[in-house]
Specification:
This protein has 2 helices and 12 strands; from the N terminus they run H-H-E-E-E-E-E-E-E-E-E-E-E-E. The chain is mostly beta strands. The protein has a single domain, classed as outer membrane lipoprotein receptor (LolB), chain A. InterPro entries: LolA/LolB/LppX (IPR029046), OM_lipoprot_carrier_LolA-like (IPR004564). It comes from Rufibacter quisquiliarum.
């Protein structure tokens, strides 16, 4: 789960990006990205229902799973593959349904490379980007923008974004890894400004009968 979660967060972290180096900026791409950035930053919170497809040519594997994530500021709640990860900005709960166990730990942003709550900041450095082409997705016209990390040791060598020409929303993104694996995330439903409260981003033990708590704080 930790590996999958890291991949998911890495993908969310590139939703809005500008590179720190001028020579890595494509003006056409930046114009699209700035419009998308403005759209998402104007929201107090949002929820995304997504489908993830893993393709591994070497292992001849193609797997699909669905999930959803709710983000508000530096808080988030992710549900995928029978697991939940909840962050209230200071504490992280990771609940594993199959063993009915929750791990509790302190949240340290300095130790976390990428999180959904940082999606509007992390992409601002460490990536180059270019406007690749215009295309169609689900009958809708989209901008196709490619990101590449400046760090050559990064196991991800490209992330391809499909951004709606109509409303600047992110329709899907695909991550290319050096081992040949491909991860595609498709937004099935997007909900802007869903109702959220403090309880949205907290683990309520009373709702998980018999749950084992492993407190690492």
């Amino acid at each position: 789960m930790k590996r999958f979660f890291s991949l998911l967060l890495a993908l969310f972290a590139v939703v809005q990006f500008t590179s720190a180096q001028n020579n890595s900026k494509d003006p056409a791409a930046q114009k699209v990205l700035d419009a998308m950035s403005k759209k998402y930053q104007a929201m107090n919170a949002f929820k995304v229902n997504f489908t993830q497809t893993l393709e591994s040519p070497s292992a001849k594997v193609k797997e699909n799973m669905t999930g959803d994530i709710t983000v508000a500021g530096n808080k988030f709640r992710l549900a995928v593959a029978g697991q939940e990860v909840i962050n209230n900005g200071s504490t992280i709960w990771t609940f594993m349904k199959d063993v009915n166990e929750v791990t509790v730990s302190d949240y340290d942003p300095e130790e976390t490379e990428m999180t959904p709550s940082q999606i509007y900041n992390l992409y601002k450095k460490g990536y180059k980007y270019v406007y690749a082409e215009e295309a169609k997705e689900g009958g809708e016209a989209v901008h196709v923008i490619d990101l590449s990390p400046e760090d050559r040791d990064n196991q991800v060598y490209k992330v391809r974004l499909h951004i709606s020409k109509k409303d600047h929303s992110l329709k899907s993104w695909k991550m290319f890894r050096k081992n040949g694996n491909r991860y595609t995330y498709t937004v099935k439903k997007f909900t802007p400004n869903p109702p959220v409260t403090a309880s949205t981003f907290a683990f309520d033990k009373s709702k998980y009968k018999g749950v084992k708590v492993v407190d690492l704080r």
